[in-house]
Amino acid sequence: MNRENFRFPAAFAFLAGVFALIAPVISGFSADGLALLPQAALYLIFGYLLILGRRILGWLGFFVLFAALIWALTWIWAPSPVPSWVFLGVFGCNALAVLGLFVGLWRAPPVAEEV
Question: Residues 6 or more apart from 107 whose CB is under 8 A from it?
Answer without folding.
Answer: 5
